[in-house]
Design goal:
The chain is built from 10 helices and 12 strands. With about 325 residues, the chain is α/β, with parallel strands linked by helices. It has a 12-stranded mixed sheet. Bound molecules: S-adenosylmethionine and iron/sulfur cluster (SF4). Iron/sulfur cluster (SF4) binds near residues 22, 24, 26, 30 and 324.
Length: about 325
């Protein structure tokens, strides 16, 4: 059974949020004093995560799993959990999105456990700005974490950056130069309306077009063909081999090619970041549902996936769960 929706898209990429908690407080993602965390009893256990992942891989055609959060590295037992997911057959592509603060400690063990690659979020190279943007003084740890990821072979090491107007939007070229020098693949992501403060403002968002214009002040940037279902539009930098990606989630949505489905840390399926409904897998699982029952619930949830996120439509309403509790 494939996870096919009513528009013919097939979900093969499962994003699992391992926690809604985080050790940073990125201003566009979390208030400085944090959020009301999910109660522990509602969080999926490791065994439950592995069981649902096994159902996805063996019954529903999922071939790629990305671990995210919140910050996945704050989940106790992460390395063991990765090892169990890496043992699923057929073997999936296993990656993780992380703020990188703990990678210096974990990268080698995660690689040995079977993690294939990482995406590390880094929005600025200036320590004062990093502190202002995340409320934590951890820039040096992130840089060390990126180096550790590369050394461990978690390749290609990707860097995700969100630009905020008049905060760090002047850093597009310097971030790109820094990443190219180190062999990291940089992708800029347009800020989306997923913050708990509901402070997103379309007029203030730095658009993909603006990001490209800023890059072109220092580089030749040429569009590359063959985006497929990848959210990033890729560009060759100075005729290659270096590249840069721009994820225009708002101004150039890639919903028509979306192949993702999300599982929250408390066991709710979401067919889209912006979905207004969730399918609860945790409760039936804990009530004794068998694998076939859970697979059917899962397939039905994906069948109801909407055509697009609707951010640009007149009726758009921001989902009540913030990004950190959905799994970015
Ligand atoms: N804590 C990990 C991290 O920061 O990489 C994983 C979770 S975080 C929610 C995943 C990604 O979402 C990060 O790259 C972050 O910059 C991005 N993100 C968070 N809020 C966002 C927003 N409102 N719009 C666009 N990207 C956002
Ligand atoms: Fe934490 Fe990631 Fe959100 Fe930053 S973007 S607050 S690192 S979950």
């Amino acid at each position: 059974m494939a996870l096919r929706d009513s528009f013919g898209r097939v979900a093969t990429d499962l994003r699992i949020s391992l926690t809604d908690r985080c050790n940073l407080r990125c201003t566009y993602c979390m208030p400085a004093d944090g959020l009301a965390w999910l109660p522990g009893a509602e969080m999926l256990t490791d065994a439950e995560v592995v069981r649902l992942a096994r159902i996805a891989v063996t019954r529903l055609g999922v071939n790629e799993i990305r671990l995210t959060g919140g910050e996945p590295t704050v989940r106790p037992g992460l390395v063991d959990l990765v090892a169990q997911l890496a043992m699923l057959r057929p073997r999936v592509q296993l990656s993780m999105t992380t703020n990188g603060t703990s990678l210096a400690r974990f990268a080698a063990a995660l690689r040995v456990a079977g993690l294939d690659r990482v995406n590390v979020s880094l929005d600025t190279l200036r320590a004062d700005r990093y502190l202002a943007m995340t409320h934590r003084d951890r820039l040096a740890d992130v840089c060390a974490g990126l180096a550790a990821a590369a050394t461990a072979g978690l390749a290609p090491v990707k860097v995700n950056a969100v630009l905020l107007r008049d905060v760090n939007d002047d850093e597009a070229p310097s971030l790109l130069r820094w990443c190219l020098e180190r062999g990291y693949a940089l992708r800029f992501i347009e800020q989306m309306p997923l913050d708990p403060q509901h402070s997103w403002d379309r007029g203030v968002m730095v658009t993909g077009a603006e990001i490209l214009a800023r890059l072109r002040s220092e580089f030749t940037v040429t569009a590359l063909p063959g985006r497929g279902s990848a959210p990033a539009e890729l560009f060759a930098v100075d005729d290659g081999p270096g590249t840069v990606g721009v994820i225009g989630s708002v101004t150039a949505p890639f919903c028509a090619a979306c192949d993702r489905v999300r599982l929250t840390a408390d066991g709710q399926l979401r067919s889209c970041l912006f979905a207004d409904t969730e399918t609860n897998l945790r409760t039936p699982m804990r009530a004794g549902a068998d694998d076939a029952d859970l697979a059917h619930l899962w397939a039905a949830a994906v069948r109801g996936k909407r055509a697009g996120h609707g951010v640009n439509g007149p009726d758009f309403a921001q989902p009540s769960r913030p990004m950190s509790a959905i799994g970015g």
